[in-house]
Amino acid sequence: MSGIFNFCAGPAMLPHEVMIKAQQEFINWQDTGCSVMELSHRSKEFVALASQAEADLRQLLNIPENYKVLFCHGGGRGQFSAVPLNLLSKGKSADYIVSGSWSKAAAKEAAQYGDINILDITQEHTDSKSVLAPQDWQLNKAAAYVHFCPNETVDGIEIFDLPETHGVPIVADMSSTILSHEIDVTKFGLIYAGAQKNIGPSGLTLVIVREDLLGNAAKGTPAIMNYRLLAENDSMYNTPPTYAWYLAGLVFKWLKGIGGVAEIAKRNQAKAQLLYQYIDNSGFYYNNVVVEQRSLMNVPFWLQDESLNARFLAQAEQQGLLALKGHRMVGGMRASIYNAMPIEGVKALVAFMDKFAAEQS
Ligand code: PMP
């Protein structure tokens, strides 16, 4: 590695080993004489690759037989539309938990398609913010589903528990947390995630959906968003994002190789702890999320003296610490430390932050 660490929230860095492997295979994949991206999605070689990637993902997340895994187009926002189109049956409403900017956007999109009930769980305190814990969500027992976002990429808030829904399916936007720690898939009706953080490059979106939720798409649902149609066609109703699927497969192999989700979860804990601990003790930087709800993937932080922001970013970039600028809606800084970010990257960031702070005094 070149000593450059990319803290972008997405598209995010991919594991170095994966990039090297992709480079080696770029123009001649498995002696086909072609790049993977030049192969038909219906060729036996690609079909084998595709099902191996699915099998590896199933193993990593322990996905039961009665769940379909769909490899879709359209990103997280595509699913903001696809979920209500497929699951919000006539005469029912859906609960949308709003914990930050992405869940708010999901609710806004869903409202175009049906009756939705918004539960704003955000809480602002004098110098911190939090969200209501799942046991305090006032859920509708007759809802078609409850939608929430376990990790708010912009706000840096993570919800680690699940609500008791008495059978109402839980739908989770896991775009920025999937594969970062173990989950019990059986507790969910549907999980979706844009690939560009913990899975692979942008252009691919994963949907993991319980079989009994298929087959109720609203009239007018675009065919390429119809879960049942996608499932019946092994996600090849139309041409899937083949190269992104291939790269996702390499990422799954890499993750299995290092010990799977349990191992990466330990590493992610260690990385986040290092960074938050430094921020909290620095007196120079701060994070505004209550400790127990801090995201392990996206760490927003601010300089006490915001007039130093531009200098901080310029010097960080000179040091090879890239894409630390905070989201335009919240300002400040944000370090995204997804699965592919090694602890060395976080150590380099902390060392730089410390040096920068010392130089300003
Ligand atoms: N949900 C979450 C939690 C996200 O972080 C993002 C993108 N950062 C999206 C949805 C939207 O994803 P996309 O840009 O792939 O539509």
Automatic annotation (TrEMBL):
Domain of life: Bacteria
InterPro entries recorded: Aminotrans_V_dom, Aminotrans_V_PyrdxlP_BS, Pser_aminoTfrase, PyrdxlP-dep_Trfase, PyrdxlP-dep_Trfase_major, PyrdxlP-dep_Trfase_small
Family that this chain belongs to: Belongs to the class-V pyridoxal-phosphate-dependent aminotransferase family. SerC subfamily.
PANTHER family registered for this protein in UniProt: PHOSPHOSERINE AMINOTRANSFERASE (PTHR43247:SF1)
EC category name: transferase
Family annotation (HAMAP family): SerC_aminotrans_5 (MF_00160)
Co-factor requirement: pyridoxal 5'-phosphate
Identification of the protein by name: Phosphoserine aminotransferase
Keywords, in A-Z order: Amino-acid biosynthesis, Aminotransferase, Cytoplasm, Pyridoxal phosphate, Pyridoxine biosynthesis, Serine biosynthesis, Transferase
Pathway the protein acts in: Cofactor biosynthesis; pyridoxine 5'-phosphate biosynthesis; pyridoxine 5'-phosphate from D-erythrose 4-phosphate: step 3/5; Amino-acid biosynthesis; L-serine biosynthesis; L-serine from 3-phospho-D-glycerate: step 2/3
Position of the signal peptide: none
Subcellular location per the Swiss-Prot or TrEMBL entry: Cytoplasm
Domain Aminotransferase class V: 4-349
SUPFAM superfamilies per record: PLP-dependent transferases
Binding residue positions for L-glutamate: R42
GO molecular function: O-phospho-L-serine:2-oxoglutarate aminotransferase activity
Protein's job: Catalyzes the reversible conversion of 3-phosphohydroxypyruvate to phosphoserine and of 3-hydroxy-2-oxo-4-phosphonooxybutanoate to phosphohydroxythreonine.
Lineage: Bacteria, Pseudomonadati, Pseudomonadota, Gammaproteobacteria, Alteromonadales
Entry EC number(s): 2.6.1.52
N6-(pyridoxal phosphate)lysine: residues carrying this PTM: K197
Catalytic activity: O-phospho-L-serine + 2-oxoglutarate = 3-phosphooxypyruvate + L-glutamate; 4-(phosphooxy)-L-threonine + 2-oxoglutarate = (R)-3-hydroxy-2-oxo-4-phosphooxybutanoate + L-glutamate
Amino acids binding pyridoxal 5'-phosphate: G76, R77, W102, T153, D173, Q196, N238, T239
